[in-house]
UniProtKB/TrEMBL annotation:
The chain holds residues 1 to 232 of 341 of the full protein. One of its GO terms (biological process) is amino acid transport. Belongs to the ABC transporter superfamily. Keywords: Amino-acid transport, ATP-binding, Cell membrane, Hydrolase, Membrane, Nucleotide-binding, Translocase, Transport. Transmembrane segments: none annotated. It comes from the Bacteria. The lineage of its organism: Bacteria, Bacillati, Bacillota, Bacilli, Bacillales. It is an enzyme of class 3 (hydrolase). The keyword Cell cycle does not apply. Its EC number is 3.6.3.-. GO terms for cellular component: plasma membrane. It comes from Pseudoneobacillus rhizosphaerae. Residues 2-232 form the ABC transporter domain. This is Methionine import ATP-binding protein MetN. One of its GO terms (molecular function) is ATP hydrolysis activity.
C-alpha cells in the first residue's frame, strides 16, 4: 500500500543544511497499523508529511495506493489527499462551523450533492460515536470529541490511508485509549491502512502491528512491536 524508497529530506536553515530524513526505506501493507516512534526532532513529522505531499522529498520515491506522491502537484495532489487523509495533534477543526459542518466540509470540496452529504455525515457521526453533538461547535467539545470530529472528517471521502500526526498527544491517558480503540475499530471494519507517528511507547504497544524507531532522520529499528520492544 505504501512504499518509501531511499527517501531523504534536507531543509536549508541559517545554520546550514538539516537532514531531517536520511535514506529511509519502509514498505507498509494494506490493512496494517504502522507506527513510527522517536524523540522530538527525529524526523517523524517530516516523514509522515511526505506521504500526502505536504512535504516533497529531496531524493527518493514514495508510492501510496499506486500513486507516486513524491513529486506530485496541483489536481493530482488534491485527488491524492482524498485517498490519503490525515488527523492532527491540535485537530485543525474549523472553529466557526458545527460538528456536522466540519465533517461535511471535505464532501463539499469533492462536489458531493447535499442529500448525499447529509447521509454520509450521519453515517460518520455514528461511526465515531458523536450522536447528539451534531450541532455543537468545536469550542463546546472535549478534546476527545474534537478528535472524533477530526477522524470523521478524515474518513468522509473513503480514504485508503489514514495518517495520524501525534493524534493523541494533546489528550489525557483515558481519552487517548478511547481514541486508540476507535482507530482499531475503524482499521478492522474498513480495512483502512493507518500510519501514525508518536513519541509515546504506550500508543505503539496498544495498537500497532509493526513499528519503526527513528533517530536523527534514520530508521534504527523496524519490526513487530514484540520484536522491537522485547526485554533483553
Ligand atoms: P519530529 O516530528 O520527530 O519531531 P521533525 O520532522 O519535525 O521531527 O524535524 C526533524 C528535523 O528537521 C529537526 O531538526 C527540525 O528542526 C528540522 N525541520 C523540520 N521542519 C523544518 C523546516 N520547515 N525548516 C527547517 N528545518 C526543519
Ligand atoms: P485542547 O484543549 O484539546 O488542547 P484546544 O481547544 O486548545 O484543544 O485547540 C487546539 C488548537 O486550536 C490550539 O492551537 C488553539 O489555539 C486552537 N483554537 C482553540 N480554540 C480556538 C478558537 N475558538 N478559534 C481559533 N482557534 C482555536
Amino acid at each position: 500500500m505504501i512504499s518509501i524508497k531511499n527517501v531523504q529530506k534536507i531543509y536549508a536553515s541559517k545554520q546550514g543544511q538539516v537532514k531531517a530524513v536520511d535514506d529511509v526505506n519502509i514498505e507498509i501493507t494494506e490493512g496494517e497499523i504502522f507506527g513510527v516512534i522517536g524523540y522530538s526532532g527525529a524526523g517523524k513529522s517530516t516523514l509522515i508529511r511526505m506521504l500526502n505531499g505536504l512535504e516533497i522529498p529531496s531524493d527518493g520515491t514514495i508510492t501510496v495506493a499506486n500513486r507516486v506522491v513524491s513529486k506530485i502537484k496541483g489536481r493530482s495532489l488534491r485527488q491524492a489527499r482524498q485517498e490519503i487523509s490525515m488527523i492532527f495533534q491540535h485537530f485543525n477543526l474549523l472553529w466557526s462551523r458545527t460538528v456536522k459542518e466540519n465533517i461535511a466540509f471535505p464532501l463539499e470540496i469533492a462536489g458531493i450533492d447535499k442529500a448525499e452529504r447529509t447521509n454520509r455525515v450521519n453515517e460518520l457521526i455514528k461511526l465515531v460515536g458523536l450522536e447528539g453533538r451534531e450541532n455543537a461547535y468545536p469550542s463546546e467539545l472535549s478534546g476527545g470529541q474534537k478528535q472524533r470530529v477530526g477522524i470523521a472528517r478524515a474518513l468522509a471521502n473513503n480514504p485508503k490511508v489514514l495518517l495520524c500526526d501525534e493524534a493523541t498527544s494533546a489528550l489525557d491517558p483515558q481519552t487517548t485509549d478511547s481514541i486508540l480503540d476507535l482507530l482499531v475499530d475503524i482499521n478492522k471494519r474498513l480495512g483502512l491502512t493507518i500510519v501514525l507517528i508518536t513519541h509515546e511507547m504506550h500508543v505503539i504497544q496498544k495498537i500497532c502491528h509493526r513499528v519503526a524507531v527513528m533517530e536523527a532522520g534514520r530508521i534504527v529499528e523496524l519490526g513487530s512491536v514484540l520484536e522491537v520492544f522485547k526485554n533483553p
